[in-house]
Amino acid sequence: MKFIRTHKKLSICLLIIAIFILLFGSTFARYIYNVINNYILESREFYFNSSILDINGKDYKINNWDGVNNYILTIDVNNKKNSLSSTKSDISYDITVSCPSIVECRLSKTEGIIYQDSGSDNYQITVIPKEEFHEGDEVDITTFATSTSPYVKELSATYTLGVETSKFTYDIEDAVNNKYIILNLTNTTTYYEVETSFSTYQAGDRLTIDEYNALTDSEKENCFSAKVTVSFPANTLYLDMTNTNYLHRIPNSEQTEMVDGHNYINEFSFKMNASSSEKIMFYKNNPKNDFTYPIVNTESIVTLTVETAD
Q1: N or C: which end of the chain has fewer CB within 10 A?
Q2: Does domain 48-165 have CATH number 3.40.50.360?
Q3: What confidence tens digit (pLDDT) does each residue in 159-213 have?
Q4: What is the pLDDT of residues 20-45, one digit of tens each?
Q5: CA 124, chain centre distance (Å)
Q6: Range(s) for CATH 2.60.40.2310 in the chain?
Q7: CB atoms within 10 A of CB 9
Q8: Cα separation, 303 vs 132, whole angstroms
């Protein structure tokens, strides 16, 4: 009785959890426990949160993996309840990941610190295929971020990563406070199409990679595996004009937009080789934005128009 009198709030919480266990089972009771525990931690001004992870787990289904190249998942954590409330100390946390044996899941780090001044941190999971994947195949990757100081709190999420039927996929790597984003492009088309007749080839003919590689540079100009047009808001993203794909863009394909009296690139087109991947870097006007796609955002800040070989 003395314990109950001196720990009224805790006793009430334990009683509620016990009732839920009896009425609804352990899964729902665990959910209630996490909610109550989070309430107690926040009453102590401790905030360990994420736009991706959750105290009761989150599920994501991603269907834009080609099943050939590595796939990178970026996860953020922060020390904020909202724009006005944050934890007044550094937060240390541990990171784990689990995945089936058909892939390797490589963490960028196994522990991290959210410094009070920065307010956020992030880590990456690189999913590496160890077997041959086909359209429709899926793998589940579960990750946990657990704060260890000043209080313990666990966040988690499960990604169902599926092999898409599309010949072309893309995603955006980003995080809060990043100065730039990375647009990852993958063309899984395994051949080329002739678009302008030359030598013994006619428009519409299909060439293997070996046949294409045997052509001269001028002959290759008549073929394509994927033609990509990238469009983006020039007042939000600034193209890194040293990107190889921009330097090798299709002639006269770039478009500009006037921002504060200056012209900035907001669109250009280029060709991608068969069975290849490329990266495009853009600097962000506001580092506090997070343009991660398709996980954090359901719509991409970058618009792609793609034509692949038939």
Answers
A1: N
A2: no
A3: 999 987 667 889 999 999 999 999 999 998 888 999 999 999 999 999 999 999 9
A4: 555 555 565 666 667 777 778 888 99
A5: 9
A6: 48-165
A7: 11
A8: 30
